[in-house]
Amino acid sequence: MVATVPTPAPGAVQALHSTVIGWYEAHARDLPWRRADASPWAVMVSEFMLQQTPVKRVLPAYAAWLERWPTPASLAADAPGEAVRMWGRLGYPRRALRLHGAAVAITERHGGEVPSDHAALLALPGVGEYTAAAVASFAFRQRHAVLDTNVRRVLARAVTGVEYPANATTAAERRTATELLPAGAERAATWAVAVMELGALVCTARGPECGSCPLKARCAWQRAGCPPYQGPARRGQTYEGTDRQVRGKLLAVLREAHGLVAQGQLDVVWPDAVQRARALDGLVADGLVEPVGPGTYRLPQ
């Protein structure tokens, strides 16, 4: 369990801001969704794609997606199955359906413009606490605590003094992140992305580069002697031989078919008939595949 610790004194907090933001200004990656000409829709697309997927895999998919669907209305006008097809091998394809659902809602409720209001963002289908805060912060430069895995890890180490945060975000983490936000909205938005970048490039989950970390002298975990993690077992992500792998193989056939797919075309992708049927049933239940007739399937229309 992550211990509750006092927030650093105001002077220390300001120094923390200056250190991290200064490091970010010198070391930030040039990513397309961070550029001044990136639309709120482009930022939203990036946030959906970056969930559980590395930047290097997202970059080509992001570019292709925005070339085809540069606005929410253009995606909303297409079938949800086309979103699943374009999602390709990014993994966790339900994100494609959720992004399509958000595009439809933006088109119907907000005239095709991504709303700037945090509550309106949170009300969109498929948009959770993190995504709403990230879009409000990065696209509209608002003051919100943005707590992704990287931010949570940096704050756990630098402020709380433990190697890893809890598996699920806690109320104490949210309180700490909120208390650490700079007062001004613009600086708070920069702070949010700066801490995220620090976690992605330096304060990584495995093999953190503490020697080059700008927070080394201030890090509570360093001062404590880098004690090993003592909390509940951290969740691993296996893939080989799992239903996730089978689902991916089945979806690949449907994405490439551009039409109806017969059961026999799906049967050849995985030898275990029971697991294959379970994976296909799961895809149907998740709305990623539609049964059209006996033994015939397609992407959702």
Structural class: mainly alpha
The order of strands across the largest sheet is 1-3-2
Q: Which term fits the overall shape? A: globular
Q: What are the secondary-structure elements, in order, as H or E?
A: HHHHHHHHHHHHHEHHEE
β-strand number: 3
Q: How many helix segments?
A: 15
Whole-number mean pLDDT: 94
Helical content (DSSP H or I, runs of 4+):
40-55%
**Main beta sheet strand tally, sense and closure:** 3 strands, antiparallel
Give unreliable regions as ranges: none
Radius of gyration (Å): 21 Å
- β-sheet strand percentage: under 5%
What does this structure look like?
The chain has 301 residues and is an all-alpha fold. It has 15 helices and 3 strands. It has helices at 10-27, 40-50, 55-68, 72-76, 80-87, 94-109, 118-122, 129-140, 149-160, 171-179, 185-201, 220-223, 243-257, 263-267, 273-285; strands at residues 261-262, 290-293, 296-298. Strands 1-3-2 form a 3-stranded antiparallel beta sheet. Strand 2 (290-293) and strand 3 form a beta hairpin. The longest helix has 18 residues, at 10-27. The chain is globular, with a radius of gyration of 21 Å. The model has no long low-confidence stretch (mean pLDDT 94).
Layout: helices, strands, pairs:
Blueprint: H1 10-27, H2 40-50, H3 55-68, H4 72-76, H5 80-87, H6 94-109, H7 118-122, H8 129-140, H9 149-160, H10 171-179, H11 185-201, H12 220-223, H13 243-257, E1 261-262, H14 263-267, H15 273-285, E2 290-293, E3 296-298
Antiparallel strand pairs: 1-3, 2-3
Helix pairs in contact: 1-11, 2-3, 2-8, 5-6, 5-13, 9-11, 13-15
